[in-house]
Design a protein that fits this description.
mainly beta; 9-stranded mixed β-sheet; 804 residues
């Protein structure tokens, strides 16, 4: 089996500046703190589970970090420093540390005069931290400390802690979570101690947003590897003041001197009963300490305000706080979604989880931040037994207030008071969703196929306009999908391209018996202007999209609209817009007036990309694009998402996507064979910058293709950088590119690309040359150590490119 694993992809700036981002959203941009929300380690078996995580300096500036390992009840049990030259990457195995005590070997220039431990690259900074003398490079941990740390993380008595600090588990695995803070000096201080945080970043923890990272939970014995991006938590001077929510609020008397943005308390995540596991990190709201073994700390179990399980007809199953207390009570835990743990009546749907709670001295109305990601086995969708995918949940409240104590689903108003992170993407609902790339085999359902799930995250009804675009950015067909509040819709592209099948939906007027778009107890069901009942595509339309998306002549378009193909696979990308009118027509005709666009941020979803014959699976979060009619950066003259359709008139009010990205790729990686790969592939969406019209078949591609880019550099794992002069690396609007085809001089490393273009007529006046983009990095696992151990293997969510 060939698996696709997620690899870090983040929007950042090549300089030491940080990306365009907003406090209050977990954007995939460089941050001052990384959270690995959950880990498991089996130190007793060579084929047992391990957790591997990466830390990367996303800028040219050197970065010193403080890594802290916490128990699953939130007690710090181990800390160590990791130094990074600019653009450096460190891959860290918790099993290696907790088995032998071997810590990552890094050192700043003062402790590395020969430049061999942490080499300096031509584009990277390497500076001296005098405080690290004698601390870096670190010596191995003494055997006694290793044994005591293992006991603490296993839930046994710890000599250093003076009791137990974690939950006991019969399987002897070590569990907990990890934080990585940008540090100003080497120090033995922990985040729980005075002097670690000083307002303005003057303590041990600094405020520079330089870090990116991801993590892998690797179970060789079961043949399963989970992967996800670390939660990227930014620091900002605006996060300060009494009773201000912040990530480390409980450790700094709730006055936010840590300056770290908080995480959300309410999360939405799709589920399949008996097949979905939730990985949940929660803020305990107190500073946990050791307790008598056999007992429980006073705060445990953490309470939960509520959980709703919605099926695809918005019928809700409600779990109350008392039921959930024993099931979501840990600071870091792993939970199976089934009838015993979560009373969900439907086989599939999505969960709305409100983790709000208040403990100890936390101010009233401030509490319950968390982070949720899931693993889901997907046999029912793909027919591939044992395949699993992972992905982050969607944050659905404003974490700056953390006042979501209601036991009802979050309102549309709460969704739309969130800060807008213009120019970055995060785990939040949007006004437009982007499927950056799809493939569908037109004849064989066992070959390439793509399934999209999207939902209305609020009780307010929404109207979604789904548009298919060719890989050159020519729209081919649009249709409406009506969503009652909290509704979910599934788009199966194989059935669409083969049979013209569109899921039946209709607003209140077009669904008189409440049969095709059911109104649930908490959901709104209203009317939108126009005829909103969905219809299957006609035979003529099916013939049109099959031709158009394979680069063949379309009689509807009067020419070709895509890169010509001979493999009978349709390709392209998809947009899903929240709109106000049920209207026919394509975006190029409709988007000339702002009245079509809804600026409410209600939509979220995932796309599943798989090939049964090749046993390839990938699931990723849809890019959520936010809108605002009041933001200066989404007005006329700006580089809005749909600006290329209307001379940047700003009528869509959609934020642009980032134009600069760093992508970590794993070709030929020999370290940590469990995450080594047979090659990394990139799914790349690019703003074409202009309306693309159908063209004469058989000739050259029309302008503006091939798309150029402003700059590209590649860095190896030791931060050594090389300028890349290859032109047109990503030449069209939507593509799947093997990194090996780019002929990069570094086998495994990090690619930085600035996908801007030169200024030209018709481009945004405020940001000439700006071109938004979206990148997903996938790595195919060919490791024999996994495939020999069991017939089942896992694929993971890979949407972890970093935005610049």
């Amino acid at each position: 089996m060939r698996c696709l694993l997620p690899v870090a992809v983040v929007a950042t700036l090549l300089t030491s500046s940080t990306a365009l981002a907003v406090i209050g959203q977990t954007d995939r941009v460089p941050a001052a703190t990384l959270l690995i929300p959950y880990f498991e380690v089996d130190v007793d078996s060579p084929t047992g589970v391990d957790t591997v995580f990466t830390i990367q300096a996303a800028t040219a500036s050197a970065a010193l970090t403080n890594v802290v390992v916490w128990s699953d009840l939130g007690v710090p049990v181990l800390r160590f420093n990791v130094y990074l030259t600019g653009f450096d990457t460190q891959i860290i195995s918790l099993r290696e540390i907790l088995s032998s005590g071997a810590l990552p070997q890094t050192a700043s220039v003062g402790q590395d005069p020969s430049n061999t431990i942490s080499p300096q690259g031509v584009f990277s900074q390497d500076i001296n931290y005098a405080s690290c003398a004698g601390a870096l490079p670190p010596a191995a941990l003494p055997a006694g400390i290793v044994a005591d740390t293992r006991a603490a993380l296993r839930g046994d008595s710890s000599v250093a802690a003076g009791g137990c600090v974690g939950l006991p588990h019969a399987d002897e695995k070590l569990r907990g979570y990890v934080t990585v803070d940008y540090a100003t000096a080497c120090s033995n201080l922990l985040p729980t101690q005075a002097g670690y945080f000083v307002n303005g970043g003057g303590g041990i923890a600094g405020n520079q947003n330089y870090l990116t990272g991801d993590f892998y939970i690797v179970d060789v014995g079961r043949g399963i590897t989970l992967a996800d991006s670390a939660a990227h938590i930014e620091a900002a001077s605006a996060v300060t003041g009494a009773d201000t929510p912040s990530f480390y609020a409980r450790l700094v008397a709730f006055d936010a001197i840590d300056n770290r943005e908080p995480l959300s308390s309410s999360w939405g995540v799709p589920f399949t009963q008996g097949e979905t596991e939730l990985f949940v990190w929660r803020d305990p709201q107190v500073t946990p300490a050791a307790f008598s073994c056999g007992g429980r700390p006073g705060f445990y179990p953490l309470t939960t305000t509520g959980l709703f399980g919605f099926d695809e007809q918005e019928v809700a199953t409600v779990a109350g706080p008392d039921f959930l207390a024993e099931r979501l009570g840990a600071v870091a835990g792993r939970y199976l979604v089934d009838s015993d743990n979560f009373p969900v009546a439907s086989p599939t749907g999505w969960l709305w989880m409100n983790l709000f709670h208040t403990e100890g001295s936390a101010p009233v109305g401030m509490g319950g931040q968390g982070y949720v990601f899931s693993m889901q086995r997907i046999e029912h969708n793909t027919g591939l037994p044992g395949i699993a995918v992972t992905g982050p949940g969607v944050a659905v409240d404003d974490p700056r207030t953390l006042e979501n104590a209601s036991q009802s689903p979050v309102s549309a108003e709460n969704l739309n008071i969130r800060p807008i992170a213009v120019g970055s993407t995060g785990n939040a609902p949007g006004s437009t969703l982007l499927v950056p790339y799809f493939e569908v085999d037109l004849e064989d359902p066992n070959q390439a196929d793509t399934i999209i799930r999207f939902r209305d995250m609020s009780p307010s009804a929404a109207l979604a306009r789904v548009t298919l675009w060719t890989d050159l950015g020519v729209p081919t067909v649009s249709f409406n999908t009506y969503l009652t509040g909290l509704d979910e819709s599934v788009l199966r592209l194989g059935r669409l391209f083969r049979d013209g099948f569109v899921e039946a939906t209709g607003d209140d007027a077009d669904d008189l018996r409440d049969f095709i778009s059911n109104q649930g107890e908490w959901s709104q069901d209203i009317n939108f202007p126009g005829v909103c009942q969905s219809q299957n595509l006609t035979a003529a339309t099916v013939a049109h999209i099959r031709a158009a998306h394979t680069g063949q002549f379309s009689s509807v378009l009067g020419g070709c609209a895509a890169t010509p193909r001979t493999d009978n696979i349709a390709r392209g990308f998809i947009t899903i817009d929240s709109v106000t009118v049920c209207a026919a027509g394509l975006p190029s005709a409709l988007d000339s007036t702002a009245s079509v666009f809804d600026t409410r941020r209600l939509l979220a979803g995932e796309f599943l990309f798989f090939n049964r014959a090749d046993r390839v699976v990938y699931e990723g979060q849809l890019a959520a694009i936010e809108a605002s009619a009041t933001e200066a950066q989404t007005a006329a003259g700006q580089a809005t998402f749909y600006g290329f359709l209307n001379a940047h008139a700003g009528v869509d009010n959609r934020e642009p996507l980032p134009n600069q990205w760093t992508v970590r790729y794993l070709n030929g990686l020999t370290q940590y064979r469990e995450i080594a790969t047979g090659g990394t592939e990139l799914l790349v969406w690019r703003d074409p910058g202009a309306v693309v019209a159908p063209f004469a078949c058989g000739g050259a591609l029309p302008a503006p293709f091939p798309l150029s880019h402003a700059e590209a550099r590649v860095f190896d794992l030791e931060s050594r950088g090389t300028q890349i002069t290859t032109p047109n690396m990503f030449p069209i609007a939507s593509q799947r590119v093997a990194v090996t085809s780019l002929l990069l001089p570094v086998t495994a490393g990090t690619l930085f690309v600035d996908l801007s273009a030169a200024s030209a007529t018709g481009q945004p006046t405020e940001r000439p040359g700006y071109r938004g983009a979206y990148i997903v990095a996938l790595s195919g696992d060919t490791s024999t150590s996994l495939s020999q151990s069991t017939a089942t293997q896992a694929i993971m969510h890979a949407n972890t490119a970093t935005e610049q």
